[in-house]
Each structure stands twice: as structure tokens, then as C-alpha cells.
Amino acid sequence: MTNQNILIACAVTAVVAGGLGYTFGSRMARVGRFADFGERNGARVMTNRDQNKQGSGGMMGRGGALTGEVTAKDDKTLTIKLSDGSSKIVILADTTTYRTSTETGLDKVEVGTKVAAYGTTSTDGTTVATSIEINPQMFGRLSGNK
């Protein structure tokens, strides 16, 4: 076998192996074979795939935010209407932080406000907020991200 034939055989093998790896990885991601939880500040949080299973219009790269419009509020909870029309109740801890471009407070969150709620989700689906972002910059791009 000449050097040229060996080079061609190696190139074809590399292309085939890369294609098979890409196809396998894509299919495994679609059927949910990879872990559904990630870490954020040492806490276990929902990843975007978890949110998408629930139809919440999760946001890529945001570490498990529930994004939508506040439809109800009290001192301990927010109800957020998600882009698919469903709602989630988010529990507000005493340590929950609130941000616009700077840190603020719960008094700045009103019914009708667009928010992104970050936190941990328990096995019963309850989310406890670690932080609330008011009027997130990416909100307008979320409606089609399912």
C-alpha cells in the first residue's frame, strides 16, 4: 500500500468515525439519556432539558431559569405564567436575591412583570428561588425555545 492510499484510508476512517459519533450523540441527547440536573452555586438545579419537558420554554445557558410573566405575588411566592401557557409557583426564600441591572427587592416585582426565576427544584416539582431576575434581557427570544 502506498503512502497516498494510507493517507486516504485514514481520512475516510476519521470522517466516518466523526459522523457516527455526532449521530450517536445527537440521538442520545434527544431521547434524554444524559443527566437532567446540573450544578449552580453548589445547588442541584433543573437544566434546560428539564424545563423543556415541562413546556416552560427554558432558556439556553441560564442554568435552569423559569421565565415568564408574574401573574400573582405574595410575601412568600410568585406565580409565573410560562411561554406555553402553564404556570409555576416559585417559593421565595428569605435569602432569595432580586436583580434588575443592580440588586433590588421583592417590592420591584409586580403582577405583569417579566422575570427569570433561578433555584432548586424538589422531586415534587416545587421550585425554591435563589434569585429572581426582573425583566431579563433575553425574555423576548424565549417564546419559541421549547
What report would you give on this structure?
The protein is of the alpha+beta class and 146 residues long. The chain has 2 domains: 1-34; 37-141, OB fold (Dihydrolipoamide Acetyltransferase, E2P) (Beta Barrel), CATH 2.40.50.140. It contains 2 helices and 8 strands. It has a 5-stranded mixed barrel. Strand 1 and strand 2 form a beta hairpin. The longest helix has 28 residues, at 3-30. The termini are far apart. Mean pLDDT is 71; it is low at 32-63 and 139-146.
Structural class based on helices, strands and sheet pairing: alpha+beta
Percent helix, as a range, is 10-25%
Largest sheet: 5 strands, mixed, barrel
Secondary structure: number of strands: 8
Give the end-to-end Cα distance, rounded to a whole number of Å: 52 Å
Count up the domains.
Answer: 2
Mean pLDDT: 71
Which second-level CATH architecture of the largest domain applies? Beta Barrel
How many H/I helical runs?
2
What general outline do the C-alpha atoms trace?
elongated
CATH topology of the largest domain: OB fold (Dihydrolipoamide Acetyltransferase, E2P)
CATH class of the largest domain: Mainly Beta
Residue runs with pLDDT of under 50 for 5 or more positions: 32-63, 139-146
Secondary-structure element string: HEEHEEEEEE
- Record the strand order, biggest sheet: 3-4-5-8-7
> What is the CATH homologous superfamily assignment of the largest domain?
Nucleic acid-binding proteins
